[in-house]
Structures
1.
Amino acid sequence: MTVEEQVKDIVSRIAHIDKSIISRTATFKEMKADSLDVVQALVAVEETFDIEIPDEEAQKFRNFGDFVDFVEREAAKKKG
Amino acid sequence: MKPLQGKVALVTGSGRGIGKAIALKLASQGCDIVVNYFRRREAAEQTAEELKQLGVKVEIVKANVGDPAKIEELFAAVEKSFGHLDIFISNAASGVGRPIMDIDEKAWDWTLDINAKALLLCAQRAAPLMEGRNGKIVSISSLGSKFVWPTYAAVGISKAALEAVTRYLAIEFIPKGIAVNAVSASAVETEALKFYIREGLVKDAKQTTPVGRMVTPEDVANVVSFLCSEEASMIRGQTIIVDGGTCVAPWASVIEKGEA
C-alpha cells in the first residue's frame, strides 16, 4: 500500500469521508472535514508513520496532495 | 536564592498563551521546566529558548494529554529527566465550538478528555513523583464552567468537570502533602481569544471588565505562582477567579464607568 493510500484510508476513516471524494487537489473544506477531523487525522497519520506534523507545517497544506507529499518526505527521512 | 529554586514544574500546553506565561513565571522563581506541547513545535522551541535564558533546565515533551498512553510517555520523560516533580500545572486545553445540538460523541470525548480527564490521569501519575516534596497541582479553568457563552457548551462543561476533579483531588491528596487548586479567568488576551473575537463570539472585553483592561496571561501566571508557594498552603480545592471584577459586577458592561 502506498503512503497516499494509507493516508487516504486514515482520513476516510476518521472524518467519515467516502474515499472517492478524496483527491490530491481536494481541500479539507471541500471534503467537508471539520477542524476536529483534521487534527485527529494529523495525529493518526503521525502515529502510523512515526513522524511529526506540527501545525506550523500543516497550515501550509493547500490540499490533500500537499499533505501526502509532506508525509512521504518525512516518512522517507525516518527510514533514512 | 529564588523561592522555587531547584524545583521541577511540568506545565502542559506551555508552548504559548497562558501556559507559556506560567512557565516563564515559574522559571523566574527558579523552577526547572518541562514544556509540553501538542501541535505547535516551533512555538514550544521558542518558549524553551526563552526559559533557558532565565538560567533554568528545560525539557520539551510532545504529548496529547487527551490520550492516556501519551500521558504515560509524558510522565516517563519527566521521571527520566528529573526523577521527581514538585509542581504540575494542568493547562492544556482544546475544544469544539458548536451549539449544543451539534455536539456529537467525538466532539464531547475530545474536549472532555483533554480538558478534564487529563487532570485526573496526570494527577494520578504526578502524585508518586511528588512524594515527600510538598507538591502543588494547579489546573486552569475558565468562567465557562459557571456562565454560558454561545458555542462554548463542550468547553464550559469540561471546565466544570475540571473544577470538580480539582476539589476531589485537593481533599484526597492531603495525606500525600499535595496542595491542589484551580485558577479560572475571564477572556484572556491570547491567540485562542482572537479566534473567538474573529468568530464574533466575544466582544472587546475591555468594555466589560470593571478594572478597564483585559486579563493577561501574566495576570493568571502570577496567581498560579502564588498557589505554588508555601504561603498559599491553606488554600485547598479552590477555584481562584482572575477577571478584573467581571463576575461581581456584571452591570459594568451596561453602564458608563464611574456612574455606578
Note: The CA atoms of residues 201 and 258 of chain B lie 27 Å apart.
2.
Amino acid sequence: MTQELIYSVTGIALFAIGLFGLIVAGHIVRKLVAINMMGIGVFMLFLATALHGPDTVDPIPHALVLTGIVVAVAGTCLCLWLAISISKLDNEKRKNPQQ
Amino acid sequence: MFRNLELVEADSNRSGLSVGALWFCALLIAVTCGALIAAIVLSPKAPPELAALIASALPRSGVENPVTAVLLNFRSYDTLLEIAVLLIVAVAMVPGRTRVSGSRAATVNTDHNKDPMLTDLVRWLVPIAVLVSGSLLWSGAYAPGGAFQAGAVLASACIAVVLAQNHSLQWQSHRARGSLVIGLMVFVAVAIACVAITGTLLQYPGAHAASYILFIEIALTLSIAATLLLLFTCLSTTSATVERSMDGAKTGHPA
C-alpha cells in the first residue's frame, strides 16, 4: 500500500508540475517538455494501479504503458519537427519582410 | 540543438499571464491534485480479475513473460496500431518523401576528418550494443525485455555511429525505406495469415504461437530502431540547418 501510494502521489505531482509548466511556458519547446512531464505522471499513476499485492501484478498496464511510451516519443518528435518548420518559415519571413 | 529555435521574438519564455492569474492557476492545480490523491486513497481497489485471467491463459500464449504475452498475443492489435503510428510519423518526417533512389542505406564519408575518440568508442560500443539488443529481444519471452527495448538499444547504437560522422545515412534508399516499413508489413502479413489459418484476426495457431511472436518481434525491432534513428537524424539535421540559416541571417543583415 505504501509503495503504491508513493508512486501514485509522485505521478500526480509530476502531472501537476507539467500542467503548471504548460500554462506558464511561452516557448513551444518548453510546452512540449511540460506535456511530456504530464504524460510521465499519467504513466506512473497507471503503473501504480497495476500492483495488487506482493505477488500479483496486473501485466496489462505494463504493456499499455510500454506502448504509450513509444507513441509519446514519436508524437514529441513530430511536434519538435513541426516547431522547427514553423521557426524556419519565421526566419524566412524575417529575412524578406516584403513577401 | 534548439537554442536558436525562437518562435516569438520578444518575451519568448513567459506566457504573459499576470502574477494573480499564475497564483490562481497554481491554486486550481493544487486543489485538483489534492482531490486526485484523495480519490486514489479513498476509492476501493478493483479486484485483480484480469491478472488472474492472464495467468490462467499464459501457458497457451507461447511465451512465459506476461507483459510480452499481453503485447504480442492477447492485445496484439494495440501493438499493430502502435507500429502503424510510428510508420505515420516516419512518413511525415522522412526526407525526400516520394523519391526513392539507390540501394545502400549508409555510405562511408571519406573526406571527413575522423575524430579518433569517437571512432574508437563506436568501434567498441556498437558490437556490444547489437549483442545486448539481440539478448533483450530473445529474453523478452521469459523476462522483462522484448522488441521495444531491443529496438531502443539498437537505435542508440546507430545514433552513436551517426554522431561519429564516418557514415552518412541515405534515407532515400530502398533498404532504409524497407527497414522503416518491415515491422508493419510483417505484422499485417501475419494477421492475414492468421485469418486464413484460424479464421480470427491475430489468433495464432496454438502450437506455433512462440515462433509467430518471435518472427513479429524481430521485424518490430528493426522497424522501431530505424524509426527512432530517423526521428533523431531528422531533428538534429533540420535544427542544424535552422541554426546555420539564422547565423547567415545575422551576418547578412546586421541589426
Note: The CA atoms of residues 43 and 98 of chain A lie 48 Å apart.
